[in-house]
């Protein structure tokens, strides 16, 4: 294991490399970077959307925000960025890929995940705490969580209503692709879906923000469940912290 | 145009010639109340501007505070009332955009938004409700798109705001002290305009905002584009890290006229610019329109020739348009050209410093009804009565539970009531203090001669406090 010390004297694992992709209009990139480095001590790097991703990258996160100002449709322009070709290649290789909020919208728009995200039923931007229920604890981002475990976590989106038609819903259930559901009726998502994964479970998309809930300081309810999403990634990467 | 007779005379006295059409537009924009604060400056000057932690530099549009450990916090507040009263969504949103660029121009990252709002009676007035709903969503939409939270604010509704709205927006920034922009410029430096293109939106906005609201001049309201603002934030902060910025100013009310004249005045430099170099949204824009357009999401940067390529590279990365519109001179003049033709040539100081006004003022009548001396006297009497004189300077959280209860008592006595009902006032106190306080309160009430009824579950307390004791038993009151 190769270790190094970061600027505030904490040990960082440099053997793994996590990439946070930054699009024009991404605005949760810095929060995500902070949590990955300062809280979970992962060697993290920003990647500007026009740059390619190196082959030896170990995990990729698409952060939240308003890429391209949500023009046309949330995530659709970013989904056509050059970097997405590399993300697709890495996804096929089984590399863990997490899309949060706008990142989830981009994963859906780039067909890395099935279904669509529509405007919330209220037609309004929603910013509130919700409870998630873990429905699949086998994915690369949920393997440290318990099935049906509750995760207090905030949402902040305008287009977060997940929709899948009945055929797709059958497929999602068949392949155990529903990862998170809202405990309560929040925004009109079909079957209250808040996050899904691909068939292999290495690509996960979720509307709520784990990076805003993983630290005690900013989570008034319970930061442990959200931090387990990152602990799961660490477990997947085989890093001992 | 909003220039007054005495202002036109002032121009002639100083410039000693007739102003060109462009010059008149520039001066009218900059001398509007909105840009020059010509009426309010006199009063605003009474506010303190120095302090142990205050960092004051040339040309800062926001207050900068040294918070220690090498960090600074910047704060800025601005009203955006007129535009919000006409087009509440765009008005409120561009209000947010404006304060954020003021935070940015010091070289700090905007991290929070606050707002203070006033509307008419939204329960009964449909128009007030429309204003309220759209102003709130304008603020929310802009902030959310930038990823900057609106962390607080306050709102009031009153009939006196009928047909109008007050939208005050504040922003807070955070940064490193050693990365603050120290505004400076020298001859030969380049003047660069970055961000949104200049269009016909918001033309004459600052004059419109300074006038009484009669017409609904929607073209005077600017159109918000938070996506470009977000790109500008990242561009500027990266350019700051690369030391590409010598001086910087945001374009708000008065557009280029205001930004150019004010930056030239504060840095004691001259600026020569060519309107042909300004990137525009549409063709056929007149030079005067370019100079006073208030199109949003634009920043003026002064950079050196050596740093320009790096600045361009950063702008290209974020796909933010960047035009070199002019250069810095030593002559302290604001020189506007279109190709070789001079359209305006005025001393920057003259443009940036509108003649100040001393407007007639009257004291509001309601102030006369409040007799301050009486109030102060009453407060100190009451504090003496409850034996807490000397606590005037303390905050509530610095008082003990017993002291707080005594303050509550003083507040109830302030109106000189004839009858006082005390509903378990001592129940939250611990026992050792309770007996003492019960006796004290009894003495105070005796002294004041107020008939009082105390409700309590504690037999001892009742005996210590009251002259007469009654008991409620099976819904019957029995007086002993």
Give an account of the 3D structure.
The complex is a heterodimer of chains A (241) and B (480). Chain A has helices spanning 29-39, 82-92, 102-109, 166-174, 224-237, and strands at residues 3-5, 11-22, 42-48, 59-62, 97-100, 116-118, 126-134, 150-157, 161-163, 178-182, 193-197, 203-206. Chain A is α/β, with parallel strands linked by helices. Chain A has a single domain (3-237), classed as Class I glutamine amidotransferase (GATase) domain (Rossmann fold). In chain A, helix 2 (82-92) links the parallel strand 4 (59-62) and strand 5 (97-100). Chain A starts with a strand and ends with a helix. Chain B has 480 residues and is an alpha+beta fold. Chain B has three domains: 1-48 and 183-354, Phosphoribosyl-aminoimidazole Synthetase, Chain A, domain 2, CATH 3.90.650.10; 62-180, 60s Ribosomal Protein L30, Chain: A; 365-479, Rossmann fold (3-Layer(aba) Sandwich). Chain B has a seven-stranded mixed beta sheet. A six-stranded mixed beta sheet of chain B has the order 1-2-3-6-4-5. In chain B, helix 6 (88-104) packs parallel to helix 7 and helix 15 packs across helix 16 (401-414). Chain B is elongated. The N and C termini of chain B lie far apart (83 Å). The model of chain B has no long low-confidence stretch (mean pLDDT 89). Chain A binds chain B through residues 24-25, 27-28, 48, 65-66, 68-71, 124-125, 127, 156, 158, and chain B through 137, 140-141, 144-148, 225-228, 230-231, 317-319.
């Amino acid at each position: 294991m190769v270790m190094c010390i970061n600027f505030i004297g904490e040990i960082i694992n440099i053997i793994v490399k996590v990439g946070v992709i930054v699009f024009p209009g991404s605005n949760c990139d810095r929060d995500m970077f902070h949590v990955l480095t300062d809280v979970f001590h992962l060697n993290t790097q920003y990647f500007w959307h026009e740059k390619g991703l190196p082959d030896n990258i170990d995990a990729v996160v698409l952060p939240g925000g308003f890429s391209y100002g949500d023009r046309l449709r949330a995530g659709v322009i970013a989904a056509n960025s050059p970097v997405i070709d590399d993300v697709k290649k890495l996804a096929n290789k089984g590399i863990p890929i997490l899309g949060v909020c706008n990142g989830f919208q981009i994963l859906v728009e780039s067909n890395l995940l099935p279904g669509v995200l529509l405007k919330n039923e209220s037609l309004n931007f929603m910013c509130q705490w919700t409870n998630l229920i873990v429905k699949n604890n086998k994915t690369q981002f949920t393997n440290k969580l318990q099935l049906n475990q509750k995760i207090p976590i905030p949402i902040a989106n305008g287009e977060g209503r997940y929709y899948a038609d009945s055929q797709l819903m059958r497929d999602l259930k068949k392949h155990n692709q529903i990862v998170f559901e809202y405990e309560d009726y929040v925004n009109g998502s079909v079957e209250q879906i808040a996050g899904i994964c691909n068939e292999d479970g290495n690509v996960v998309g979720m509307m709520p923000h784990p990076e805003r809930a993983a630290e005690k300081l900013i989570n008034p309810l319970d930061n442990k469940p959200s931090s387990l999403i990152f602990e799961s990634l660490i477990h997947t990467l085989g890093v001992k912290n | 145009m909003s220039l007054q007779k005495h202002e036109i005379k002032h121009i002639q006295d100083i410039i000693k010639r007739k102003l060109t059409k462009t010059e008149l537009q520039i001066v009218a924009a900059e001398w509007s109340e909105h840009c020059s604060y010509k009426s309010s400056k006199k009063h605003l000057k009474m506010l303190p501007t120095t302090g142990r932690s205050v960092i004051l530099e040339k040309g800062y549009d926001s207050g900068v505070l040294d918070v220690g450990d090498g960090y600074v916090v910047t704060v800025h507040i601005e009203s955006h009332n007129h535009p919000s009263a006409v087009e509440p969504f765009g008005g409120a949103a561009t209000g947010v955009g404006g304060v954020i660029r003021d935070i940015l121009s010091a070289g700090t990252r905007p991290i929070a938004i606050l707002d203070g709002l006033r509307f008419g009676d939204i329960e009964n007035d449909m128009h007030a409700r429309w204003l309220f709903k759209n102003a709130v969503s304008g603020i929310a939409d802009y902030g959310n798109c930038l990823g900057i939270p609106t962390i607080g604010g306050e709102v009031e509704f009153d009939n006196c705001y009928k047909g109008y709205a007050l939208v005050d927006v504040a922003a807070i920034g955070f940064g490193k002290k050693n990365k603050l922009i120290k505004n400076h410029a020298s001859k030969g430096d380049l003047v660069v305009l970055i961000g949104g293109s200049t269009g016909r939106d918001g033309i004459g906005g600052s004059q419109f905002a300074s006038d009484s609201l009669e017409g609904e001049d929607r073209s005077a309201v600017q159109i918000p584009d938070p996506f470009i603002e977000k790109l500008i934030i990242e561009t500027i902060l990266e350019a700051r890290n690369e030391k590409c910025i010598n001086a910087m100013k945001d374009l708000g009310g008065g557009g280029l006229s205001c930004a150019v004249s004010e930056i030239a005045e504060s840095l004691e430099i001259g600026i020569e610019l060519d309107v042909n170099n300004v990137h525009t949204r549409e063709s056929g824009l007149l030079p005067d329109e370019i100079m006073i357009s208030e199109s949003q999401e634009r920043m003026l940067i002064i950079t050196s020739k050596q740093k320009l390529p790096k600045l361009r590279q950063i702008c290209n990365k974020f796909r933010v348009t960047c035009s070199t519109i002019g250069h810095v001179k030593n002559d302290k003049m604001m020189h506007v050209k279109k190709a070789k033709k001079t359209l305006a040539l005025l001393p920057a100081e003259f443009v940036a410093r509108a003649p100040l006004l001393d407007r007639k003022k009257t004291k509001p009548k309601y102030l006369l009804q409040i007799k301050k001396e009486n109030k102060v006297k009453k407060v100190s009497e009451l504090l003496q009565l409850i034996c807490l004189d000397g606590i005037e300077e303390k905050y509530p959280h610095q008082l003990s539970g017993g002291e707080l209860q005594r303050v509550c008592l003083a507040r109830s006595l302030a109106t000189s009531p004839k009858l006082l009902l005390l509903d378990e006032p001592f129940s939250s106190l611990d026992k050792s203090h309770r007996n003492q306080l019960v006796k004290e309160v009894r003495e105070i009430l005796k002294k004041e001669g107020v008939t009082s009824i105390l409700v309590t579950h504690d037999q001892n307390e009742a005996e210590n406090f009251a002259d007469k004791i009654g008991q409620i038993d099976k819904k019957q009151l029995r007086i002993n």
